[in-house]
From TrEMBL:
One of its GO terms (molecular function) is DNA binding. Residues 670-714 are annotated as: Disordered. GO terms for biological process: regulation of DNA-templated transcription. SUPFAM superfamilies: GCM domain (SSF90073). It comes from Tricholomella constricta. This is Uncharacterized protein.
Length: 745
DNA sequence: TCGCCGTTTCGCCGCTTCTG
DNA sequence: CAGAAGCGGCGAAACGGCGA
């Protein structure tokens, strides 16, 4: 404040040295004033503590009130040096530069003595920012490069090519113009003095003449743009002026790097707005984004969420990253190149494959794009030497819709049971850009080839039953399976079956998911227009009994009776009883061998659980390459689990597959869903008194079957029509009155 | 007047910022 | 978040001062 006040008074009483918009400062730190003026002047400081001008001692402003008037005296007998003495904020202005080229800096001791600072180059008078530690390289061999982007003071330094790269070509934060034009020098000269010369001239800063305003503006580099800047007022309303600075850096680019020479001190504040991130700052930012890929720009700035609340913030790295838009862009630059089209993608994809050799087992690129991946461990799990006990043989296939960011892309997964891990493990994982039969065909082709490779490796015969599995009733998936099966065998030299025979054989290897059927039954049982509420329970029981019909006759008669009793569901019955669906689902209609039928699971629940596990492990909505990399890590996870178990290291506490025991006890794997679940009976404590009809009148009243077509409100036959007019937004009152009526009568 | 050398200006490219 | 607009940085040509 004090400094600002003096500056303002000075600007008021003393005519500007330059034109009305400019204050020119010499490159050595002093204002361009005559010696005679200096000899009788009080130095004026900017907020960094450096002199920006002088006030003559006999000026009327001396006699103003507080702060007390400064007195000047000559301190050095050799050179006329001005010192500031008297009561002042010495902690801020205790070090300062006087004069032009032969500058001396003094500091004041607590006792009040003034002591010259011996090395002005190293101890500069900036109060607000720490200048670059500028040393001539030859004097400090082996010194580590330190480049903060704010070169200041007089110095020369050599930078090696590595150091130049490391500092982004010695990028600086000062607003500056650049100049080249040296036609003599050679970029690859053997001596730095013969190198290509370029210059950087500081543009100073823009500030306004309001003493209370602390805004500093970065000047534009184009003259026209700078003029436009100066025409506009400061955001405080005051007039802007250009505080020029002529500090120049000269860079000689030669064969071994850059020889850097800085000509003097910046006598103005640093422009608060920085433009560049230095490479080390970029690396820190990159590390944070890599560590928290799902964290958005705003969270990165506020602090990435941690256990104890927001943690490290990118704003700690550089002020540049306080700008949310800039953070967005920098983040995009990191995230996008790998996943956007063009050369970037090809390069990234090639790198991905190079780093994980053999992981991609089949890739089809084009309108139908399918990329299948598998590790050797996954392949080894696809064939079992013997049939396992229980319905855990064969493979389970399904598509996950949430894995990829692109909504039309799917992750197809075929899993097999691993008896060592007591869980299903992925066998083949495929990226597909759609869900057509052709997409599924390529996926299953990869699956069959993998199975065949593994069987041949173990000297087992490649036979149809190795490919048996369960899937849902997607027409495309079924078609894809059959086509792939036909293609696979047709390409093999040892196959002598016709396409029709192969198609027939493929149909015998498919089992449909009974869970999908059960879910369908439950869904239609709730369509009261087709199944009246009182018959819903009966309908579910009879429909499910179709699964266990002893033979085709019994199946047909049960179906006919169902169709008679629920005529609106004829289409639904027809769909399920189509031969292609019925053979996959109903025991009496199956074409599959009975042994195989019992050996493979009845549902794709294992696969649904696998999807859940994948999402929990790596999240959803992955970009292409990042998603593939995640799949690789998941494959590695299973492999590690397997090798741990083989060595006797426990990979879980307690019992494996606890859900099996729970299923026996409760009839289903989630105790809460059991018929007589205590959980269902228990009232959730919502902290409110019992105020619902169900709680007040008992569940029977609340559960009265609704008449078809009525809205789910209270039965009007009990209450009768309301005897008061409905007013706008009076629902709260209406409800209360209804409740009162019900509880009192 | 010419040539040398430093400074200024201009155009392009790519990065940064703004806008919807 | 994407695309547009603005801006900075670089390289090179043009310009200008100065001495021979």
């Amino acid at each position: 404040m004090v400094l600002g006040f003096f500056k303002h008074v000075y600007r008021y009483f003393v005519p500007r040295v330059q034109d009305k918009d400019e204050v020119e400062i010499s490159r050595d730190g002093g204002a361009l004033l005559s010696d005679s003026f200096i000899a009788g002047a009080v130095p004026m400081y900017d907020t960094t503590g450096r002199i920006i001008g002088y006030v003559q001692t006999n000026h009327p402003f001396q006699n103003l009130g507080s702060p007390k008037i400064y007195r000047l005296q000559i301190y050095s007998p050799q050179r006329p040096v001005l010192l500031l003495v008297g009561p002042t904020r010495i902690e801020n202005a205790s070090k300062f530069v006087i004069g032009s080229t032969n500058e001396i800096i003094y500091t004041r001791t607590p006792e009040g003595h003034f002591i010259p600072i011996q090395n002005p180059e190293e101890k500069q008078g900036h109060a607000q920012h720490k200048p670059l530690d500028t040393k001539v390289k030859e004097d400090f061999p082996g010194a580590e490069v330190h480049w903060d982007g704010w070169p200041d003071g007089k110095f020369e330094q050599d930078f090696t090519l590595d150091e130049v790269n490391e500092t982004n070509d010695l990028a600086i934060h000062w607003a500056h113009t650049v100049g080249g034009g040296d036609r003599k020098g050679q970029r690859f000269a053997e001596e730095w003095m013969n190198g290509k010369r370029a210059t950087r001239t500081c543009l100073g800063i823009l500030q306004c003449d309001n003493q209370d305003c602390e805004i500093t503006i970065r000047p534009h580099t184009k003259p026209q743009s700078l003029r436009t800047q100066l025409l506009k007022p400061c955001s405080c309303g005051a007039m802007l002026y250009h505080l020029k600075c002529d500090v120049k850096s000269i860079l000689w680019t030669w064969s071994k790097g850059i020889h850097y020479q800085n000509s003097g001190y910046h006598v103005h504040r640093r422009p608060p707005r920085k433009l560049h991130l230095l490479p080390q700052e970029k690396r820190r930012f990159e590390a944070m984004v890599n560590a928290h890929p799902q964290v958005g720009p705003l969270q990165l700035i506020v602090g990435v969420p941690g256990i104890d609340g927001p943690g490290e913030s990118v704003a700690d790295i550089s002020d540049v990253l306080l700008n949310a838009d800039r953070v967005t862009k920098e983040r995009q630059k990191l995230k996008r190149p790998a996943d956007t089209g063009g050369d970037h993608f090809i390069r990234a994809f090639a790198k991905f494959e190079q780093e994980r050799p053999g992981f991609i087992i089949l890739s089809t690129i084009g309108k139908v794009t399918v990329i299948s991946v598998q590790t050797p461990f996954m392949q080894s799990q696809m064939v079992k030497d013997e049939v396992l006990d229980g319905p855990v043989n064969g493979m389970v296939s399904d598509a996950a819709h949430g894995w990829w960011k692109e909504r039309t892309s799917l992750l197809m997964v075929s899993s097999t049971y691993c008896p060592d891990l007591f869980c299903w493990v992925p066998g083949v994982l495929s990226f597909t850009n759609g869900a057509s039969g052709e997409h599924f065909m390529y996926h299953f082709l990869a699956v069959f080839q993998a199975i065949a490779h593994e069987a041949e490796k173990r000297h087992l015969e490649v036979e149809d039953r190795l490919f048996a599995g369960v899937m849902d009733f997607s027409q495309a998936e079924r078609l894809g399976f059959i086509t792939a099966f036909v293609e696979f065998w047709y390409r093999r030299p040892d196959s002598n079956r016709s396409r029709e025979e192969l198609q027939d054989a493929a149909e015998k290897l498919l089992r449909g998911c009974a869970e999908h059927f059960r879910a369908g039954v439950t869904r239609v049982s709730r369509i009261t227009g087709a199944v009246s509420p009182e018959k819903a329970e009966d309908f579910v029981k009879r429909a499910m009994s179709l699964l266990h019909a002893a033979d085709t006759d019994e199946f047909c008669s049960r179906l006919a009776l169902l169709a008679r009793d629920f005529p609106k569901l004829i289409d639904w019955f027809n769909w399920w009883s189509r031969p292609s669906h019925a053979m996959m689902l109903f025991g009496s209609e199956r074409k599959m061998d009975a042994d195989l039928w019992d050996a493979i699971p009845a549902t794709t629940n294992a696969e649904e659980a696998m999807h859940w596990k994948l999402y929990r492990a790596c999240g959803r909505d992955h970009a292409f390459l990042e998603g593939l990399a995640s799949l690789y890590q998941i494959a590695i996870y299973y492999e590690r689990q397997y090798s741990s178990v083989k060595k006797g290291v426990p990979v879980r506490y307690g019992e494996a597959e606890r859900w099996k025991r729970i299923a026996i006890t409760y009839g289903c794997t989630k105790p809460g869903r059991a018929e007589n679940s205590q959980d269902k009976k228990r009232k959730r404590n919502d902290g409110r008194p019992p105020d619902t009809a169900k709680e007040i009148l008992g569940s029977k009243t609340a559960k009265k079957p609704r008449k078809s077509g009525l809205s789910p409100t209270l039965d009007t036959s009990i209450l009768g029509p309301q005897s008061y007019p409905w007013n706008s937004n009076s629902c709260w009152l209406d409800t209360s009155l209804q409740l009162l009526y019900m509880t009192c009568y």
